[in-house]
Design a protein that fits this description.
Elements lengths: L1 H18 L21 H4 L17 H24 L2 H18 L6 H13 L7 H17 L2 H5 L2 H7 L10 H8 L1 H14 L1 E2 L2 E2 L7 H4 L4 H5 L4 H16 L3 H6 L1 H10 L18 H5 L5 E2 L2 E2 L9 H5 L4 H6 L2 H12 L1
Antiparallel strand pairs: 1-2, 3-4
Length: about 325
């Protein structure tokens, strides 16, 4: 385990070094975004309409390095907490910290989910300069997914975090419906790529090129305390729904989650519910609010590294220390009945 974490650290350091390229002139975006102070429409004339002010405001380039270092550290921590420490408690602490930093402080930007569009645009349009920080944010969680599974979803992604904190009364979604709805995120991924590229296989995107993932991001409005009424309502509905259906955006809509699900199938090492011998009592299946356990084993592509199942496993080290044998038997009998 320690060796794997070391590989993760080395990879993260490499990414930070790559991120130091951020301040280079090549990394400058060629678009100047409207910020707090924009020229009034009348100054420009010809019926020009000033675009809406965009957030977050641009910052000094070296702050990007801080973001890359924070992402790298959070990914390594998330991996260690879930696979090494097997602690839901520490994962919640990391989740809250990442929600505060990447969500409310950085206002959800830069984020790997939206980076899908920047990467697509850079492939479709050679004049578009892709900032290095975006490349790093796009790739790093994918590399961790290939190594360990969906570490990013576990304790790092602010969109996942905000949903995870409201999972209070999860109910089981019938497996058939869970799988059917899960297809939506792949469809959304293809549509988002289509719009970001402007055209796919010669078919123009209706209405022209657009970053629809950002436009319809359901939670970024909460992070920025602004946004259109429709999208804020959409986010609110997802959060209310999320009380009963664990992380609905992650499971059914997130296009980056689609990429992570594909890569995590080949993960070198993922969540194993019991630390040693499997008990096959079924307690973990009941504990997982995301429907990610089948035949008492975590499914790599759907396991979001939330660490809830560890708390229920009587074989888990921490749980073994806390559980009376009678409690365990009683829980097992409840599941069997
Ligand atoms: S599925 Fe998407 S929104 Fe959910 S935690 Fe993963 S990357 Fe974030
Ligand atoms: S199997 Fe379920 S409960 Fe366990 S870490 Fe994965 S998503 Fe969470």
């Amino acid at each position: 385990m320690l060796r794997l974490i070391k590989y993760g650290c080395v990879l993260a350091v490499l990414m930070v070094l790559l991120g130091s390229e951020i301040a280079s002139p090549r990394a400058e975006a060629q678009f100047v975004r409207p910020v707090d102070v924009v020229p009034p429409d009348d100054d420009i004339g010809e019926g020009y309409k000033t675009p809406a002010v965009q957030r977050p405001l641009p910052r000094e380039a070296w702050w990007n390095l801080v973001d890359v270092a924070s992402l790298s550290a959070a990914l390594v921590l998330s991996t260690w907490i879930v696979l090494g420490r097997r602690s839901r408690y520490w994962l919640v602490a990391l989740t809250v910290a990442c929600l505060a930093y990447f969500g409310f402080y950085r206002q959800g930007c830069v984020c790997p989910i939206g980076a899908i569009q920047n990467v697509t645009l850079s492939l479709a349009d050679s004049t578009y300069v892709l900032p290095v920080v975006v490349i790093v944010f796009f790739l790093l969680p994918l590399v961790f997914a290939l190594l360990f599974g969906r570490v990013f979803c576990g304790g790092v992604c602010p969109l996942g975090a905000i949903q995870d904190l409201v999972v209070l009364q999860p109910v089981d979604v019938p497996r058939r419906w869970d799988k059917r709805l899960g297809i939506l995120k792949y469809v959304y991924l293809v549509v988002a790529i289509w719009y970001a590229a402007g055209a796919l296989m010669g078919i123009e995107a209706p209405g022209g090129r657009e970053f629809i993932i950002c436009r319809f991001d359901p939670f970024v409005g909460f992070f920025r305390f602004t946004g259109s009424a429709g999208v804020l309502i959409f986010g609110g509905v997802l959060l209310v729904l999320g009380i009963f259906i664990g992380r609905p955006y992650c499971r059914y809509l997130c296009p980056y989650g689609a990429l992570l699900a594909i890569l995590s199938r080949f993960a070198w090492r993922g969540v194993s519910i019991t630390p040693d011998k499997e008990l096959d009592c079924g307690l973990c299946t009941e504990a997982c609010p995301l429907g990610a356990i089948e035949k008492n084993r975590a499914v790599l592509s759907s396991c979001l590294f939330c660490a809830r199942c560890f708390d229920w496993c009587p074989r888990d080290k921490t749980n073994r220390a806390q559980c009376q044998e009678g409690d365990v038997r009683a829980r097992a009998e409840t599941v069997e009945s």
